[in-house]
Amino acid sequence: MATIELNDISIRYGKKTFIDQLNLQIKPGMISTIIGPNGSGKSTLLKTMARILQPETGSVLLSGKDIHQLASKQVAQQLAILPQHIQTPEQMTVSELVWLGRHPHQRFLKGRSERDEQAVYEALEQTDMLAFATRDVKSLSGGQQQRAWIAMALAQDTPCLLLDEPTTFLDMAHQLDVLELLKKLNRTQQKTIVMVLHDINLAARYSDELILLSNGMLMAQGTPQDILTETLLYQIFNINVRVLADPQTNTPYFIPYTRMMDEEY
User: Fold this and answer.
1) Are the CB atoms for 95 and 44 separated by under 8 Å?
2) Number of domains forming the structure of the chain
3) What's the CA gap between 247 and 101, in Å, rounded?
4) What is the per-residue pLDDT for 145?
5) Could you tell me the residue range of the domain that residue 255 belongs to?
6) Does residue 231 carry a pLDDT above 70?
7) Edge-to-edge, what's the strand order for the sheet holding 65-66?
8) What backbone phi and psi angles, to 5 degrees, belong to 62?
9) Model confidence over 80-100: pLDDT tens digits?
10) What is the band of 11 on the pLDDT scale with cuts at 50, 70, 90?
11) 243 and 168 together in one domain
12) CATH number, domain at 246?
């Protein structure tokens, strides 16, 4: 399994600090979700893990090696990233999109191999997108498009998958579909999944561990039961909450409340 380790990472733009001397180890084979207030550095942290951003100080180690010293193809064979904002090329079918995920594995002038064909088929099958293989990506619903992009990332056949807000702009049913798919991939293929989510209750339900950021600093890392306490949520988000147990999964979920509600009830 690929391992990711960040040592003393700092990222600044001008006078603004986005990540401040952060140290973090991602546990292989688990689902780790980055949570925190808006502007806390969640997407910046994910992009740093993926070598999209280079830190001002510190190092990112991928399987023990400095990620910025590795060839792009080596990185792409270990990490697949699905950014938050993706521009779909015009007139591209789902199959053509998924084939893009095989680029890191193809050799110059060698063409498509049997393994390439198999990987694309498996990615379409795992995401329930086989029936849409010949459809134009832009003709699909938002949930279907997201599954197509996830299929492309799966075709890349990496041990680690990074996703920035994979449920953005999706309704609740499609959010659950995407998160159930990611959980299935983690459990059946032992893929290490790191994602950013805004919905803390969904993060708690679908994650093995949570990574809590605030003002570019790592505030806590641990199981949802350890992280989602009323005291810590008030400290980070400045809201009063009740933390309860999800009756289906026994994971914690929170309900925000106000003093007015206390007085009324």
Assistant:
1) no
2) 2
3) 39
4) 87
5) 4-78+158-264
6) yes
7) 16-26, 4-13, 57-62, 65-66
8) -110, 115
9) 998 887 777 778 999 999 999
10) very high
11) yes
12) 3.40.50.300
